[in-house]
DNA sequence: TAGGAGACTACTCCGGTGTATAGCCATTGG
DNA sequence: CCAATGGCTATACACCGGAGTAGTCTCCTA
C-alpha cells in the first residue's frame, strides 16, 4: 500500500489522512482535525484542493480506485468473500469503513459503489446459474439488486448499531457480523423460508410480477 | 393523531415540529429551523427542554410510543405489513422516516427500535414454524436477528440512496421499494438460492455452527 | 384587584467551521 | 548568484450553531 513510504508530499498525506478521518469519524470531521492528523496546517487543504468538497471528491475517487485494485488483487471475486477478507489489512479496513459510510449517507460515491456491486453480482449469479449452482430467477437483475441491497444494507446497519469502540478494530466487528449471519444465510439460501410455494404462486397469479417496477430499468435501486 | 387540534401548547408544537424536522432534514437540523417550523422563537426550546439533546430524547420517546400505538391499532402485526401500511397516513410516514434515520445513525432510539423488531419477529416466526408455514431453523433467534437486519438494512439503504426529493412523498419511495423487492423476496423465501445443500452441510460439518457467535447471547446485534 | 408564575421573545455570547489573504522558506533554473 | 515558483504556515474573517440572560406579556389565583 502507499503508506509504506512514510514521507509523502503534503497533498497525498492530506488525502490519506482525510480518508482515515472520514472513515473513522464520519464526513463531518473538520478540516482542522484532518490537517492535524496529517500533521500539516489547515490552510494547506485549501492550497491543494481549494475546498473541503473537492478534498472529499478526491477521497471518494481514491477509495473507489483502491477498492477496485484490492479486489482485483484477490482474484476470487465473490462479493461476500471480498468483504470478508477486505478488513484483513489496515488499509482494507479503512476502505471498507469509508465505503460503508458513503453508502449510509447516500453520497454519489456510495451510490456508485452500490451500483458496481450489483453489476458484479449479476454477472456472478448468471455464471452460477448456468453452472447449475444457483436456481434461476424470473428476474435476474432484480434478484441481483435485491441481494446486494439486503446484504450491504445489513452490513451498513450492523456497523451503525455496533460501531467499533476503537476505530481500528473493524476486524472484530466484521468477524462478529459474519459469525452472526453465516448460519441463517446458509439456511435461507439452501432451504428457503416458506414451507410451501403458496405465497409466491399467489403473487405470480396476481399479475404484479409481469410489471417491471417502474422507471427506466436497470439503474441502481430504482428511482 | 394529536395534530388534529391545531393549537397546541408551545412545548407540544415544538416537539412535533422537531420530529418532522428531524425526519425530513436529519438530526442536524438547527434549533432555529425547528423553532421556525413551530412558529415560535428559538429560545423557547431551551425554556421547555433545556437543551437540544433533551428535545431529541423526548422526540425519540414520543416516536417510539406513537409507532407502538399505530402498530397495535392495525392488528395484523407482521412487520413487513406494518411497514407497508405505515406510510399510508402522513403521521405514519413521518414516523417511519424518523425511525429509519435513527437506525441509520445508530442512535439509542434506533437500537431500541431494532431490538423491538427482532423480538417481535422471533415470536411471529415461532408461531409460523409451529403452524408449519415456515421451515424451522437450527437457531431461531439468530434467524430472527438476521432477517430483521437484512430487511431493515435494505430499507435504510434504499432510503439513503433514493431520498424522496419532496420530503413528503415517502409513500412513493416506499412503493418503489416493495415493487422492487417483492418478487426476489418471495422467490428467495420459497425456492432458496443454492441448487444443492453442499455449502450448508460443509458449514455444519465444520463445527462452526455449534459455537454461538460471541458475547452474552440475545442482545440486539451482538457485541 | 394585586401578585406571581410561567409561557414566550429579543438579544447576547462563545466556540467552532469553512474560507480567504499574506507571507515565509526552500528548492530550482537561468 | 538571484529570482521565481510552489509547498506550507499563521492569522484573520464571516458565519452559524447551541447556550445563556433579561425582560415582556398573559392568565390564574388569592
From TrEMBL, chains A, B:
Q: Which PROSITE patterns match?
A: HTH_TETR_1, HTH_TETR_2
| Regions recorded as binding DNA | 30-49
Where's the HTH tetR-type domain?
8-67
State the UniProt keywords alphabetically: DNA-binding
* Superkingdom of origin organism: Bacteria
For this protein, the record's Gene3D superfamilies field holds: Tetracycline Repressor, domain 2
Specify one Pfam family.
Answer: TetR_C_25
Name the chain's protein. AcrR family transcriptional regulator
SUPFAM superfamilies of this UniProt entry? Answer: Homeodomain-like (SSF46689), Tetracyclin repressor-like, C-terminal domain (SSF48498)
